[in-house]
Amino acid sequence: MNLSGCPFMLPFIEVDLNVPPTIAQSRPGDGDPVVIETGSYTAFVIARDPDDTELSFFWEISGLGVQPDATPLQDGALLGSQLTIAADPDYDGRVLTVFVIDPQGATVQRSWPITVTGAP
Asked: Domains plus CATH for the chain?
C-alpha cells in the first residue's frame, strides 16, 4: 500500500509543560548551616514559580517531621515562608529541609544541617 501524498494529518496537541519553582533567596544561604547560638533562629526562603501559580511550603526537621509553625511571606510575585527554631539541644545534629511545591506537584527543596551551640 502506497501512502505517499496522503493528506491525512494528526491533530495538533498542545503540551503544557510544568516548570518547577525555584528558590530565589534563603537564610541560611545554599550550603550554609543553621547555627543557633542563643534564643532562636529564623530561617526563610523566597521562591518564584515560572508558571505563576501558588506555591506551598513545608518545613521538616529530620527525625521530628513537618514543622507546623511556619509563617507565609509575600512580596509581589515572590512567595516565601519562614520558620523560627528555638535553641533546643534536641535540634543539634539534625537537618532542616524546606520543600516548595507547585499545584502540579513540581518540587524544589533546600536543606541545612543544624548546629545548636547555646540553650535558652
From this structure: 22-116 (2.60.40.10)
